[in-house]
Design brief:
- This protein starts with a strand and ends with a strand.
- It contains no helices and eleven strands.
- It is mainly β.
- It is globular and about 45 Å long.
- Helices cover 0% and strands 56% of the residues.
- The relative contact order is 0.31.
Amino acid sequence: QVQLVESGGDLVQSGGSLTLSCDASGIIFRGTDMAWYRQFPGKSRELVAGISGGGTIKTSESVKGRFTISRDNAKKTVALQMHSLKPEDTAVYYCQAQIYRDGVRQDYWGQGTQVTVSS
């Protein structure tokens, strides 16, 4: 079955950096669109950055210039490099895979990893 396992969340000071990683299994990773979302307490998940199976990247304006998404198809991983972290980046970060089966899109999620930025 599809499994997404995030890692790398931590407590970091404002201005610091972190790299999140998502290990995927149970999917044909190479052609799968992947993304990172985050969720603030009491809010819906919001897109942080996405990378298509072909490598096209989209990044939220709120993190553009600070966060970078990348993928390693051989290792079946997608990473989120985060720099110049701010307290408002504090959230649970989720990895997402968008898989199409018979033309129907199904989204799969990891369990999330907590990022806390102290001021």
